[in-house]
Amino acid sequence: MNGASRVVSLLPSATEILFAIGAGDRVVGVTHECDHPDAARSLPRVTSSVLATDGVAPGDIDRHIHAARHAGSSIYRLDEAELERLEPDLIVTQELCDVCAVAYSEVRRAVRRMPGDVPVLSLESRSVEEICASIEEVGAATGCGDGATTTADAMRRRVTEIAALPPLEPRPRVVCIEWTDPLMVGGHWVPEMVRLAGGVDVLGVEGEPSRYVSWDEVVDADPDVMVLMPCGYDLPRTMELVPEVASRPGFADLECARDGRAFAVDGSAFFSRPGPRIVHGLEILASAIRAEPGDTAPKGAAYWNQPATSRIALISPAAL
Fold first, then answer.
1. Could you give the domains of the chain?
2. pLDDT digits (tens, 9 = 90+) for 85-114
3. How far is CA 51 from CA 66, 67, 266, in A?
């Protein structure tokens, strides 16, 4: 058998990649957040969260994370005994964000304590093309190069098709809210996705990390389209945040509110994780950005009514 045969994934997007390219039967361990595909849910878990986040407000989660960082602590626990028991011959992780996965330094320390020389593959995607390239990298490491090429090429073709749609003039102004308290806008591949979909991200910067913004900056930007995509949140949890955002001063006067073009999406599935489903996120953006004022919701959407303010479209992943 070529390539690694016992893989531990310390990143939900890596787990998705491994299954997508045909290496799912080689995955022997995952994180507590690996929920896609369904087959990953039953695999041994080698991490847990220090923070309890179910039902916790975004502001409290942010404060807990900053307190842990200030104390020099990780927000994740790595079960080193379980990791060693699984006897991996490849560990896949990342260094880009210590909120997205166990800190890379902690992984390296754990590996040094294990017998043998277990390779650690770190995926550091900052763009859509780099996501495709990381899929091919995982394919090479697992001996599933053909599956990786098929997956990456299919993604590239769909990205090219969406980018080739007739240009919009002017390009709609878009704000992608990745966290609500404190406010953050999406970075890395998210502003690029907006551009490829036909819009312009007026607060995010392509290839750069997500960043904090003030609500005044959002109001001043007066976006034509607003996308609520909190990192790590599925659709139901995201919808719980809609009333708080829609009730902020000046929201009702924004172009996106007047035209009913504020969207809540499943950020965890389609935007936060640099894996194959990013293309679905791009399709969602293309539909949202190209919707005309007064149009019905984009395909796969249903409206959520905020009294006396606006319509908020809810994108349903089941329709993709």
1. 7-155 (3.40.50.1980), 167-319 (3.40.50.1980)
2. 999 999 999 876 555 567 777 887 888 888
3. 12, 11, 21
